[in-house]
Amino acid sequence: MTPLIEFRNVSKIFSGGLLNRKQTVALEDFSMTIEDEPPLITAVVGESGSGKTTIARLLLGLERPTHGEVLYRGRNLTTMRGKARRQFLHDVQFIFQDPYGVYNPFYKVDHVLTKPIAKFKLASSRREAYKLIETVLETVGLRPEETLGRYPHQMSGGQRQRVMVARALLLRPKLIIADEPVSMVDASLRATILSNLQELNEKFGISIIYITHDLATGYQISQNMIVLYHGSVCEAGNVEHVVQRPQHPYTQLLMDSIPRAVPERTWKRDSTTANMEKPAAGHVGCKFADRCPQVMAQCNESQPPFYRTDSQRIVSCFLYSNAPILQRDGLNEVFVSQ
Amino acid sequence: MNEVALQVRNLQVHYATARGPVKAVNDVSFDLHKGEILGLVGESGSGKTTMGMALVGLIRSPGKVVSGEILLNGRDLTSLSVDAYKKVRLEEIALIPQGAMNSLNPVTRIREQILDGPRDHGIVLTKAEADDHVASLLHKVGLSPDVAKMHAHELSGGMKQRVAMAIAISMKPKVIIADEPTSALDVVVQKRVIETLQDVQQELGASIILIGHDMGLMAQTVDRLGVMYAGRLAEIAPIRETLIAPRHPYTRMLIESLPAVIEKKPLRGIAGLAPQLLNLPTGCAFHPRCPQCFDRCITETPDFRMADEGRWVACHLSDHQ
Amino acid sequence: MSTGPVLSSAQRGLSVHSESTWREQASEVGRFLRRNPLLVAGLVLLTLLFLFAVIGSYITDIKDAQPLAARPLLRPSSEYPFGTDKLGRDLFATIVAGIPLTLRVGIVAGLIGLGIGTFLGFVSAYYGGWVDNLISGIVDVGLTVPGLMVLIIIAIAFSGQLDVNDMALIVSALAWLYPARVIRSQVLTLKQRPFVEVARLTGMGGLEIIFLELMPNLLPYLAASLVAAIASAILASIGLEALGLGPVDSPTLGMTIYWALLNGAVINRWWWWWAPPILVISILFNGLFLLSMGLDEIANPRVRRSL
């Protein structure tokens, strides 16, 4: 069967500013395939400006690639209309970061649940629709009588986000794009929402692309992980490999910077200076070179390819040039697929 | 180290609403020791941000400091007039407010914004003195002196946050309140900014209250930790002991709900919802969500009591020692 | 920077009740009215005017608003509370007749102006591109042209043949420009909110999103703009009428002023001729203005001066 989603050498470049034609590379030459089976959770981890949100928006068709294509069942996403697009909107759902902005303050929260049912004809009567709604609300641990009939401002951020998870489930999609779904939610509720997502994957067979800056939660719920830096993939593969034995200097930096809730002080002082600028289009060499404690001359000359350092991992770093090279569009080969 | 920089006694900060007063801070007492970093952690409705604002006298109608004391340098700040407080603010106690990096003036240069504080306090500097002052402040927060000439939009998030820090320390206060100073920053920048804060503390010999919601950040940064829930302090203790053996169930569950990177484990959140301050549960505000709730918890609000040397808890379980 | 932390929804303790008693609802309304004194003041003034016109129409005969209904230049008395003018019109009847006529011009022109302006503003902001450029271009140019001059020219071209409805149409020709610009900027802001993207991803089309998602959020704003549009339409029509360019046969407020000025009412100290229409007009405008400010406060709580 044609893969559900395919990214083929996708690049996204934003030209900013009126006077200076400075271009920012949000995403560079990114390729990935998402199959129907088996349903997997893939974490896309990076800082702001890494390109992770760009991937989400490209996946949903909210942005067009500057180069390359995004395909849904073999068809170009940007040119899809009518029935095919409708099918896409059904198969691919989303959970956005801001649990308030996604609600139209004029309507009760029921609106975000009834609208998709109406649009996608999931129920033939009002009664049936509400039954469906009650089922999904209960699946995510909300009580319908406490949720329905309320306005968004009458609920907490965590509750609103859970309603959005319920909404995503409503359509029984093949794929859910979760873009920082818990970063604006209280800590005590995060675990609950994330375990809801895990349940959607395990019990309902839905694949999830979990986009986050938080490596720890990415690790907890996903099978595969992609680490992005300034629009390029640094490291990717089986999440156990990437997190337990990080090889890319950036991944290592991330791991060291995560503050752990443990009695020992694991944060160590380091003296590297951080360069905050984003590289402009046309930047030569590895994007991380100017922050890298192990930078070599080669790093400034060309972008390192994907080195496959074990069967389920690639690292884009010249430190590992002994390992075999994997084609950029072969990213999926290192992913867990059971 | 046991000298006290700031004392809070039975502070009550209420907000008047159409449906009655909301007790955002409800009878909170604690000490800030000289030279320490005290963390104040809590979720929505815990009152931690209100606490920070109250300490620097920035509570405005419909909010009001109803009762209690804030003792700094032998004076009760709650008795100060608005003008008197203005003088104390920035000189003796300063706030780096939540979202500070977004409240930098977009039109004026950084230099002007840093000099605003001293100017308001009637300090007159020659151009050379002003330049020096700004340059040294920027240096203290790890920024290049060139930043003085820049505007806010030219700076990254981490740099803006450090400018906010520079503004707060421009008059060398001895107490600094930092409210979520790293919330919009990524992990790597966060670490740098916190390290800067610690450097600043060392240099000024100041004491810091760090307000936030990230237990991990607290674990790696603070000396002691206060946990707030529904406007009250649930627990306060040295950080190591809090992490090794938390006394309050809320603290324990908060720590457990955090994902670890050591190994995969089932994710455990805290069931239930944050309480509505206008409709607080009877007795202990946490009891509906507490797995160890028993009869007394439903009827009687636990007092904030010393459970051990340097540890205070508000929980009936601790009374049953 | 704000002067206090924003209370989280937990702290605001918002009630869950979806059914409230009659008493609770009444006290909600009471509270609402107390918090919006400007709105209430405006409504009160307009209601008084409305009552005056309604009750007045029962007391007198509208036909007396025409010339030769009574002896001319009578001072106010119990028979003729506002006296009569030089042509023998009963001025009380004239005012009572004039209020609804003037209001009609304002409301019709205001509605048409706002309707067209809103629609174009929405379309322009939502679709962007060349549609936006075209509409914004027309609006920007149109707004720089002195409106009253254009109206005067049009009115002169049709002078003598106008009735009240024609007045409304003429005034509305320009009344849509300002709402179009203002609504456009509101929609541009709203468009950024995530719920619009959610709507699009739920399969909703452009017009559906405009009418079902965006417009309901602008209702308080639209109401405030409508009142402002009505007020400016009335002002424009009174202006034209006072210059003599209005419907000559109708006893509108502006025409009354025209006749009064034409016949030298001020110089001759026939105060009962020129004072009532001016008084009525100022009550009308004060009412509309207060109402619009009150609605503005609801639409944009930051503008709020009370509480």
What does this 3D model show about the protein?
The complex is a heterotrimer of chains A (338), B (321) and C (307). Helices cover 30% and strands 22% of the residues of chain A. Chain A has 338 residues and is α/β, with parallel strands linked by helices. Chain A is globular. Chain B has a single domain (4-105, 172-260, 267-319), classed as P-loop containing nucleotide triphosphate hydrolases (Rossmann fold, 3-Layer(aba) Sandwich), CATH 3.40.50.300. Chain C is mostly helical and 307 residues long. Chain C has a domain at 100-277 and 290-303: Orthogonal Bundle (MetI-like fold), CATH 1.10.3720.10. Helix content of chain C is 69%, strand content 0%. Classes of the chains: A alpha/beta (338), B alpha/beta (321), C mainly alpha (307). At the A-B interface, helix 6, helix 7, helix 8 and helix 10 of A face helix 5, helix 6, helix 7, helix 8 and helix 9 of B.
Short recap of the structure:
Chain A is α/β, with parallel strands linked by helices and 338 residues long.
Strand content of chain C: under 5%
Describe the biggest sheet of chain A?
Answer: 9 strands, mixed
Quaternary structure type = heterotrimer
Mean pLDDT of chain A: 89
Average pLDDT value of chain C? 82
Shape of chain C: globular
CATH topology descriptor of one domain in chain C = MetI-like fold
The biggest beta sheet of chain C, please? none
Strand content of chain A: 15-25%
Count all strands of chain C and give the number: 0
Report how far the terminal alpha carbons of chain C are from each other.
Answer: 19 Å
Would you state the CATH class of one domain in chain C?
A: Mainly Alpha
Classification by helices and strands of chain C: mainly alpha
- What pair of chains forms the biggest interface? A-B, 42 and 45 residues
Shape annotation of chain A: globular
Our measurement of the CA-to-CA distance between the termini of chain A, rounded to an integer number of angstroms, reads 17 Å
Based on helices, strands and strand pairing, what is the structural class of chain A?
alpha/beta
Please identify which CATH superfamily of one domain in chain C we are dealing with: MetI-like
Helix percentage range of chain C: 55-70%
Give the strand line-up of the largest sheet of chain A. 6-7-8-3-9-10-12-11-13
